[in-house]
Amino acid sequence: MTTTNADPGGEPLLLRVLGPVQLLRGGERLAVSRKGLTLLAYLTLEGQALHRETAAALLWPHSSGLQNLRVELSALRRVGVSLGPARAATLQSPLSTDLDLWEEDQDPDLDRWLSALGPAPLSGLDDPAHPALAAWLARGRAALGARVRRALRRRLDREPPARAEDARRRLSTQGWHLDELPGPAPTALAATLAPVLARAQGEVQALLYTGRAASGRGELLSAALRAAGWHPVGVTVVPSVAHLLASLVLQLRRHLSPVLQAEADALLASSAGAERDLVALSGLLRHLGQPVAFVLRGAEGLNEDTARALGFMLNWPATLLLALITTPQGEGRVRAHLGTAAAPGRLTTAEHPPLTPAEVAALLPPGRAHDAVEILRQSEGWWPAARALAATPDVAVRRRLDPALRTLLATELRAALSDPDRLAPLAALPAPFAQAQALDVLTQEGATVPEAEATLRAALRSGILERVPASFQAALAPDRPVRPLDGEQPLAFVSELQRAMLAGVLDASARTRLRTWAPQPLTRTGPVQPWPAQALAAPTSLLGAEVRALGFGYRLLQAAHGFTLLRCGLPEHHAPELALQVGAPPAPRWHWQLAACVARRDAPAHHRPFALRLQRPGQPAPEVLLPALEVGRWVQLSGTGQGPVLEVLCAGANVVLHVANLTLRPEADAAGPPVAPA
Fold it and tell me: Would 57 disulfide with which of 155, 327, 560, 629, CB 3.0-4.6 Å?
């Protein structure tokens, strides 16, 4: 592949990504369309070869993608940028960016070095009509922001404390906050917040924001509120109404004028009681005249008294949002405390965005970016675990949980159960286990039958345990729900990390004894039909993919014309079989083609990480097609099918399955453009 990144005179080309995206030669801006700049930014920042069809689908998802791509490539060649030979199947860019040069330039003059840092990265490329592009831009900005913060921290650590603090204040005015947790951009959350904040202009609203502990929930929510013009006032929930009110007033005081600060001071000194203080606080908000959001961290700590105080706030004549942050396991407890205080239409639930491979890659040194997917698998998409794994030299070796993670996991569990250690014996059982088996174990450990039954009910209700089907269906289209099949279902822990933490509570002899129990077997779809496969070079990386939890431990990383399936568990455990449905084109017969690679699997026979199920022409029912796969080797498969769907089957306790270049075409038009999988 030949690529030009300089003109005949030797002037280098540079892609500006800090601020408005521009292509520069010798400091002069070149005329390049927005689509051309988007293509250059994607290829340069992803650092991987990209198939032409994938690039076309990303930039022109609705029509004439390949034709438009050829026009843009010709325009780029005219300004001196060649992304590969004219007939090459893939595109690649070796351009340098202004961020690359800024990271490398350690100018001894700190002010001059900081002045070279531009505003928010990747400006000018947004297109609201293209959701996939918007998602990539959000992830790209988060990754670039993480790089900038790392470079700033390294440099400021070498400066005198007073000089470093002055630089931090200057950077804060430019929008760079060094202590901010690197996490997902607030774009998706802003869309959820918009109608809630609009309703809060007329009557107080409550927002229940769920996510795992220490995953940056408060930082992201506060950033989204500030971007919408609201004042977030963050406090941690405490059992005392008086202490909760005092915390809110102390945090709110910073936003008040001197006159209102005097009123706040009088309220803090008041001895009138919590009910009168609540009335006084409502008056303070009315006089403020600005929208305020009370961001309550640890909302699972609400009790009857503090929940009653929030119920009173919901009736205030103020522009106010009550944002309650909790864990997924604590959501039920918060709803129970709020009861009927949050009437229909007054309570909205939102989930914290999942961690993406691109964000994990930003935690790693350049030579370890390939570890991002494995870290995402082992960490279950949880920031603290991902950071801990990124600091280990070899992620392929499973290690014991460090004390800090164990403490956070225990906090999550206590948000759902007052004594989660009661579940520790179940954490050592091979999963899934029958309910009768779980009751036997708990009673052998000293619980009465009613106590054991109550423990299981509480664990299921709080989302620590779940019932596991032998198989379940999900779809690439995010609006189609997961559908487990009916029937008596055994139990398993929802989180492998939480299970491992609880198992660690037991002594070694207890774990060894409990592991001898047999798991509840899960049947696999069959019989199978062997299917031929051809060896293939590895296609484009799927880093930058959209992340979605499918249920029962499976996570989907979705990109244009491909996806990755992840699951984390123990090899001796049994996992349900996922049937991921890909919508077929509306035609009597259709041709399908895909590339597949099993990058991680377990040896036991009850794991089957990859198969296909579809109905072939002339066959009375769908069949399971099973190719012979070697771990780490890419293969290409193709064939003809009929009916509404093609299903990708995956069953494995530990699995990484990549599927790329997935296309389905009506058979009569097999040479035409691919139909986007649904």
Answer: 560
